From TrEMBL:
This is Putative membrane protein. GO terms for cellular component: membrane. The lineage of its organism: unclassified sequences, metagenomes, ecological metagenomes. InterPro entries: AgrB. One of its GO terms (biological process) is proteolysis.
Length: 196
């Protein structure tokens, strides 16, 4: 394969990722508007995206599955943040537990690669750990400021984003994503058998 063909393949893949990201965000925004949870959904997304960017983690095997599962997860967590009323003391415990779990996850698994992309360069791995640690620190500061200001709904949205993104970095997260992929595969096989 010459470099021009390789460039076309890279551009094509990049365009596909961009379209999937835009499709996800349009679906998420429309559903969050319908549920009245746009702000908490985007609060969840802010932490979730930052942690996933620097921490890595498990991925579904296709873009379509990712759009569907991401949309459901983002909208559900944004909406739950609006509906669940957590007392201040419980929220502080939840945030503290999340920060401690985040520190452990950073030491143990960050950056978490995929089957296709493992980060093996020690310098790059160290920088990803630093970036993730800074993200965790920013999350911690903002969340405790929100709690102090009485904005428990937004603090919960940020915390749910942190918890889910940290989970996807762990071996348990990889197992959950594999189970989701297997479920989709089973549903597709069942549909094909029913149509034959």
């Amino acid at each position: 394969m010459n470099s021009e063909e390789n460039d076309i393949e890279i551009y094509s893949y990049s365009l596909e990722i961009l379209i999937l990201l835009l499709a996800t965000m349009v679906c998420v925004t429309l559903l969050a508007l319908l549920l009245g949870s746009v702000r908490t959904t985007y609060a969840f997304l802010a932490v979730f995206a930052a942690f996933r960017c620097f921490g890595g983690g498990a991925h579904l095997i296709s873009g379509k599955r990712c759009v569907f599962v991401s949309t459901v997860m983002l909208v559900a967590c944004g909406y739950l943040s609006c509906c669940i009323l957590i007392p201040k003391q419980i929220l502080i415990l939840l945030v503290t537990g999340t920060v401690l779990a985040g520190q452990y996850t950073i030491m143990k698994w960050v950056p978490a690669g995929t089957a296709k992309h493992q980060i093996t360069d020690n310098k790059l791995r160290f920088m990803q750990k630093i970036n993730m640690s800074v993200s965790l620190l920013i999350y911690t500061i903002i969340t405790f400021l929100l709690i102090t200001a009485g904005s428990f709904t937004y603090a919960l949205a940020l915390t749910l984003g942190a918890i889910l993104s940290l989970l996807l970095i762990t071996p348990l997260g990889y197992n959950i994503v594999a189970a989701i992929d297997n479920t989709f595969d089973s549903l597709i096989k069942k549909e094909v058998r029913n149509n034959v």
